[in-house]
Amino acid sequence: MKVGQNIANLVGGKNTLADHGPGISVSAETKPYDLISQTQAWKDLWRHAKEDISQTHLRQLLSDAKRDASLTVEWDGIFVDFSRQRVQLKTMDMLFDLALSSTLGS
Which of 11, 21, 63, 67 has a CA between 20 and 30 Å from the CA of residue 57? Predict the structure, then answer.
């Protein structure tokens, strides 16, 4: 997934979670009554945060101009900048995967 495109789509309303039908379909792994923290997507994100992100300083991330550009979006006069957060592109992709695999929006 392209992070900038996902952010623009979500902010721009072109591909919001609600656009996936009356509600996001529940994956085989996630039941409506399951805690999101019990899903594999959550566990993968938790492991990524613990093993990769916790070892990375924001200064190091900010030195990557391509990353910074990929984590910003402007839509209808609103500018959103995730580059000042301690996230990698992989982190944002994992967050989008988590949202899409959950019952968020239903």
Answer: 11
